[in-house]
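Encode chain A's predicted structure.
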Amino acid sequence: VYAVPDFLDGTLSHRMALKGKSIQAVIRIGDGWAAGGRLEPLILWAVQRRGLPPLPATPRSFDEQMQLSLAAYRGMVFDPETGGYYHAVVPGRREIRGGYFADHASAIWRITGQAPELPQLQFGGAHVANPASYFVTGRAADWLRTMNGMADGLIQAQQPDGSYRYGGTYRRGHFEDTASGICSRPAYQLLEHAYHTGSQASLAASLKTLEFMKRFRTPRGAQTWECPLHTPDILASGQAVWAYVRAFQLTGDRGHLAEARRWAITGLPFVYQWSNQPIMMYATTPVLGATHWKAPNWIGLPVQWCGTVYAYGLLLLAPYDDTLDWKQVAEGILICAEQMQYPDGPSIGCLPDVFELESQSRRPADINPGALVSLRLLVAGKLDSLAVAADGRHRVVAPFPVTVRDGTAHVDARPGVKYQVLIDGTRIVDVTSQGQDAIPLDAGASGR
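Encoded structure for chain A:
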């Protein structure tokens, strides 16, 4: 029982109580907020005291997993009328037509080695972005133009104090018109632009937002298309981790790493670390609240796609921080998502929007598996999206692993593949791969 204030006794105090025939519990009371206390150390203490649970059993091999995801792109997610793809489908309801999503094309290319032939590419499509397809279909300029435009729009929408504000329907019930989730999304999008292009304008704007975000202590407000602004939200945790890690990578400021760690800890209460069902361990509840201030109540009801964004942020954090085994948490979330995928039937390979634990049943909408493809590749130590390399003078983006040495970009590609690289955020170079490609970074120089 948790009552604030204690409406059970009709007092202004708070009630925290346990009821049961037999109780074994440890209670730790930390310093209050006014005395410098924070919730994150208590969350971390609880998790470290118990220890992370072992990973669930993987339902299939790496290759089998990729083929299952590919089946979704060839099945439920595919729109035969347009030759495009859906983000998600409620079986029997297709009021709109499929789009030419770049994320879908990228996932298909990573799995098969061949990008689908599409008349154009539409930015996005998956919950974890994967724009690699732009660079293997001769459309890197389209991607750059889209990213530059998105960054310009986000900078224009930013408030003078670095914040972003929300005034929609779901503002009601919160004590202000902003939240960590409202700010974390534009922050990480601007940082992705800066990370790939070297844009100092996007970096400066995003750092201003990250500084503003230090005032927040609760992950909330990342799903205001249907959830109240005040509702605690794992998606806000994931976006904030992602943003602060990118800020650390770009600046070397370990203060950003400390903030990434803090937000990573805030996501842990949304992750199931116990189980009494075949599919449950590392399932993720999306929010601690309800949609539209009414049913469904999401508490305890997994929506795993939200967890995949958090997991991706943890994989970015893992190489720099060992407070917890962040890779294990991320892999656990991924494996649970793979267990939830439809193994057969019309929606084969899709990730259900909702997975009911007690009945072990899947509920649509049925979502494309792009985030799962990206996470599985990353967990396996493979490149999932675009690679970035920089040496202080040049910044190079490629769809294959790339390093920069002595003024030359070295790309480990596949012989015969045509692809593009972006140099210093402005110059695009076309390459027909020899397998190991050396690309001079100074304009006018020749290479192979």
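The radius of gyration is 23 Å.
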